[in-house]
């Protein structure tokens, strides 16, 4: 079986993806089943960006991953299904006025002369449907509204819209990017001592009716109308959340290591 067909089968998809509605279904199933996480980074595992290694890690071992893995898998799946797709870098801003490095990979899909961002690797804020370029807004089933705004300098920003306010998630341009570029960004993101994923415990899963996420010592259940925030106060509570809420495959030794070094010692978020 082709490796992409293996991936689609794992999501319960037994046919090729042929239209935008199919792409949306693929996105929803992916972000529900395969978590976004920094856990393998914190455990200092070797993280290959070769497609067979990504499928083995995310699909077969169900260890999840981050943008360089999730979005490469999505890119390869859409390419296999015959879509016009390109991969680009973005600077993650999280609504801050900063000069951020190029550490986020996303996919640009062109379909029926319109362009869309497809991004299954932005953690709990990953859009559960393609986000269209242009003036219109895109609202997901989680009731999160996105827009892509073009700036005067030919850069773009992906934003969340909340009434009349805009929260900028990341900034990007459309200069060509290559796999070697993503290898460098990936190396920094999971090896550099100051990289975010080297220093923070992150885990999230996007369901239809709720979003589950851990950031260091905080566990959140996020609903369209409100968010329930729970502080993680002991290792048993942390273990229960990992195993019961996320069904994450992890050993007792690994749980203790992450709890002692990244949950117990972190500052409150």
What would you note in describing this structure?
The protein has 269 residues and is of the alpha+beta class. It has a domain at 3-172: Arylamine N-acetyltransferase fold (2-Layer Sandwich), CATH 3.30.2140.20. The protein has helices at residues 3-10, 20-33, 39-42, 51-60, 67-80, 179-191, 196-199, 235-245, 252-263; strands spanning 36-37, 84-92, 102-111, 114-118, 131-132, 138-139, 145-150, 156-162, 165-172, 202-206, 211-215, 218-222, 227-231. The strands form two sheets. An eight-stranded antiparallel beta sheet has the order 5-4-3-2-9-8-7-6. β11 (211-215) and β12 (218-222) form a beta hairpin. α1 (3-10) packs across α5 (67-80) and α4 crosses α5. The radius of gyration is 18 Å and the shape is globular.
Largest sheet: 8 strands, antiparallel
> What does the overall shape look like?
globular
Cα-atom radius of gyration = 18 Å
Count of DSSP E strands? 13
Please give the CATH architecture of the domain at 3-172. 2-Layer Sandwich
Mean pLDDT: 96
Structural class: alpha+beta
Percent in helix: 25-40%
């Amino acid at each position: 079986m082709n490796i992409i067909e293996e991936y689609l089968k794992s999501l319960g998809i037994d046919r090729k993806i042929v239209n935008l509605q199919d792409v949306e279904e693929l996105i929803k199933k992916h972000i529900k089943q395969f978590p976004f996480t920094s856990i393998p980074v914190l455990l200092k595992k070797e993280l290959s960006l070769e497609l067979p290694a990504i499928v083995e890690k995310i699909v077969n071992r169900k260890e999840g991953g981050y943008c360089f893995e999730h979005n490469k898998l999505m890119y390869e799946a859409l390419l296999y299904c015959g879509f016009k797709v390109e991969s680009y870098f973005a600077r993650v801003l999280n609504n801050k006025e900063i000069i951020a490095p190029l550490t986020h990979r996303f996919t640009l899909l062109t379909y029926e002369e319109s362009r869309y961002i497809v991004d299954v690797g932005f953690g709990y804020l990953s859009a559960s449907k393609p986000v269209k370029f242009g003036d219109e807004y895109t609202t997901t089933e989680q009731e999160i509204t996105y827009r892509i705004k073009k700036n005067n300098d030919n850069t773009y920003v992906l934003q969340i819209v909340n009434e009349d306010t805009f929260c900028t998630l990341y900034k990007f341009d459309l200069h060509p990017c290559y796999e070697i570029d993503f290898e460098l960004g990936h190396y920094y993101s999971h090896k550099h001592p100051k990289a975010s994923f080297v220093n923070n415990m992150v885990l999230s899963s996007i369901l239809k009716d709720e979003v589950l996420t851990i950031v260091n010592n905080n566990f959140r259940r996020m609903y369209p109308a409100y968010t329930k925030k729970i502080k993680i106060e002991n290792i048993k509570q942390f273990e229960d959340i990992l195993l019961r809420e996320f069904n994450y495959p992890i050993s007792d030794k690994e749980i203790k290591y992450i709890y002692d070094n990244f949950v117990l010692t972190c500052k409150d978020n």
